[in-house]
Amino acid sequence: MIYFDNVSKIYNGNEPALQDITLSVEQSEFVSIVGHSGAGKTTLLKMLLVEDSPTSGSIFFESANIHNLSREELNKLRRRIGMVFQDFRLISNKTAYENIAFAMEAAGRSEEEISTDVPYVLDLVDLGDKIWNFPRELSGGEQQRVAIARAIVNQPDVVIADEPTGNLDPVSTFDIVQILKKINDLGTTVLLATHNKGVIDSLGRRVITMDGGRIIRDDKTGQYAL
Amino acid sequence: MWWTNVKRIIKYGSVGFIRNSFVSLSTILVMTVTLFVIGSLIFIGAVLNNTLNQVRNKVDINVYFVTTANEGNILSLKKSIEALAEVSSVEYVSREQALSEFRKRHANDQLTLQALDELNENPLGASLSIRAKETSQYEGIATFLENDVAVSAGKEPIIEKINFFQNKVAIDRLTRIIDSSKKFGIAIIIFLLVSSIMITFNTIRLAIYTSRDEISVMKLVGAGNSYVRGPFVFEGVLYGVVAGVITLILFYPLTLWLGPVTEGFFNDINIFQYYLDNFGQIFLIIMGTGILLGATSSYLAVRRYLKV
Question: Is B230:B198 a contact under the CB 8 Å cutoff?
Answer without folding.
Answer: no
